[in-house]
Design brief:
Layout (H helix, E strand, L loop, with lengths): L1 H17 L6 E8 L4 E7 L3 E8 L4 E6 L12 H9 L4 E8 L2 E7 L7 E3 L4 E3 L2 E3 L11 H4 L21 E3 L9 E6 L5 E6 L4 E5 L16 H47 L4 H14 L9 E5 L6 E5 L10 H41 L4 H13 L31 E5 L5 E5 L2 H11 L5 E5 L7 E3 L9 H13 L8 E8 L3 E2 L10 E2 L3 E6 L2 H9 L5
Antiparallel strand pairs: 1-2, 2-3, 3-4, 5-6, 5-8, 6-11, 7-10, 8-9, 11-12, 12-13, 14-15, 16-17, 17-19, 18-19, 18-20, 20-23, 21-22
């Protein structure tokens, strides 16, 4: 009896703390699914926040001093449902029951009065229990007596037996929705419509809340502990996600640096390419037509040099292609060295950031500036929830998991317009056929193998001149024309590009082509490459 009396008194303490919530406007509904905290912000002259921990990381119920800092976005199913059915309405009643709390929301009633029959309910600032009607009274033991618990897996046909809300005015509107919260490590939230039909259960598979809720003796202290525990657990996950994003960005920069060093390494072959061109000019006439290779006399060493040839072209005529490759390597050297220097600076910055993340405390205020630094360095950190102070806005239970690989990299024009560049042959197909919209602009270096480039555009809009030149520059750079001083680039609206049946990866056909001859400017190219966001 002592335990039951103590539990009843604690239930009454929570009911009294929530008494002022009846008639309050529901201003906001939030959840931190990764930790299990659900919060309703209520306003009636002053703001109160009702919080319930449904697990797995926080459990319990109380009056929160504030909203949790790290919260799910509006697209989360529970948040979306609560906002659609609760936010903007008034609290008609709050039930404090043995198996959880129920918040009944709807439009305000004429006169603002109601009668409740059944379990402990706060209505109009008075605790009404048992079979009491308006003006009734009850003992503390009655205040926490609950109706028989309904199995978690059984859909609700209506409000719980013995807790039916009866409006004092028969002409008043029915409640708009009912939110049932069963706190616990495996608790659940249930949202029902005015007829008692289930709208949403979270988690979807249902929970296993305890048959009797242990309510706090001090709801304010319990609420403070709940929100702090939720923020601490969520911030720990945010720190892990941030560390993974920084690690992935560092690996991408290391790969980029290695690729640029490889390009620079080919500069050593410039003299060799020039020598082959000269030998073909001098000795190509004696190479049989249609030969796939030729043995040329090396005047410097006295030995033979084997050279691969295009059988469709005379050997002597292929000398110019070796000279062109040599010139292309030489022209690209300045851009490559500038890019390598920029990549090495970014690597040094991301390495320092990784050390700072490892040493940082798992607190939102400590992680926020680190997340901003990471985004500035191109790390794929989840965007902040609009208006939220958290560093990466938890996006459900899978928050922090690496985003799926995209078939394109994103660059930015001088005006900030996005430019999408395919990552490979199959990625080109995915970019063009699955991601680009019919009204987007599609570009490709004319007559050579290269990446598909897409400039996303609003429907009916034309591409700005600066974005067109920037996109054409990238199309030329990510093609076999890389290093040429001038390159012709084809561009058409995406709706005129087709993927022929059976065509090789990356191969497409198009009509209504327009062509721009773009002069490759080292400064422009360096600026564009510096904006690259990994796919």
């Amino acid at each position: 009896m002592e335990d039951r009396s103590s539990s009843a008194a604690q239930g009454r303490a929570l009911a009294e703390a929530l008494a002022g919530c009846v008639g309050a406007r529901i201003d906001a509904a939030h959840a931190s699914p990764a930790t299990g905290l659900v919060a309703l912000a209520l306003y009636a002259g002053m703001r109160r926040v009702l919080g319930a921990g449904l697990g797995p990381r926080v459990a319990g119920v109380g009056v929160l001093p504030r909203l949790p800092r790290l919260r799910a976005g509006a697209s989360h199913p529970l948040v979306a449902a609560m906002r659609a059915h609760l936010v903007g309405r008034r609290v008609l009643a709050v039930e404090v029951r043995g198996d959880g709390i129920a918040v009944i929301a709807g439009d305000p009633l004429p006169g603002g009065s109601a009668t409740v029959v059944g379990s402990a309910t706060v209505v109009g600032g008075a605790t009404v229990v048992g079979g009491a009607t308006e003006g009734g009274s009850a003992t503390a033991g009655e205040a926490t007596r609950a109706p028989a618990a309904r199995p978690a897996h059984e859909p609700a046909e209506g409000p719980a037996p013995g807790a039916q809300l009866e409006l004092a005015s028969a002409e008043g509107p029915a409640p708009g929705a009912r939110l049932e919260l069963a706190p616990g490590r495996r608790g659940e939230a249930r949202l029902l419509d005015a007829a008692g039909h289930l709208i949403l259960r979270w988690p979807p598979q249902g929970g296993a809340p305890p048959a009797q809720i242990a309510y706090p003796a001090d709801p304010l202290a319990a609420g403070a502990a709940l929100v702090e525990a939720s923020d601490e657990a969520a911030a720990g996950q945010e720190k892990s996600a941030l560390a993974r994003a920084v690690k992935a960005r560092r690996a991408a920069l290391e790969r980029r640096a290695e690729a640029v060093r490889g390009d620079l390494g080919r500069l050593g072959g410039v003299s060799y390419l020039q020598k082959i061109g000269q030998l073909l000019l001098a000795q190509g006439a004696r190479v049989p037509r249609g030969a796939a290779k030729a043995l040329l006399d090396d005047w410097e060493t006295g030995g033979p040099i084997e050279v691969a040839l295009d059988p469709a072209r005379p050997a002597k005529a292929q000398a110019e292609s070796f000279f062109a490759r040599a010139r292309r390597y030489q022209r690209g050297e300045a851009v490559m060295r500038a890019r390598l220097a920029e990549t090495e600076r970014a690597l040094a910055a991301i390495t320092a950031l990784a050390a700072d993340v490892a040493a940082a405390e798992a607190r939102p205020e400590a992680l926020e500036p680190l997340a901003k630094r990471a985004r500035a360095l191109g790390a794929a950190v989840a965007e902040e929830r609009a208006g939220g102070p958290g560093p990466a806005g938890i996006q459900g239970a899978r928050a922090g998991r690496a985003a799926p690989r995209r078939p394109f990299h994103v660059f930015r024009s001088a005006s900030g317009a996005a430019i999408l560049v395919g990552r490979g042959a199959e990625d080109n197909d995915a970019l063009t056929t699955k991601h680009a919209r019919p009204h987007d602009l599609w570009l490709h270096a004319k007559g050579v193998v290269g990446a598909h480039v897409v400039v996303p555009l609003p429907k009916g809009a034309s591409c700005p001149a600066d974005a067109l030149v920037d996109a054409a520059t990238l199309a030329a750079h990510f093609s076999d024309a890389r290093g040429e001083a001038v390159c012709e680039v084809s561009y058409v609206p995406r709706r005129y590009v087709r993927k022929p049946r059976g065509a090789a990866p990356g191969a497409v056909s198009f009509d209504r082509e327009k062509v721009i001859a773009v002069r490759i400017e080292g400064e422009r190219l360096s600026r564009l490459l510096a904006t690259k966001k990994e796919g």
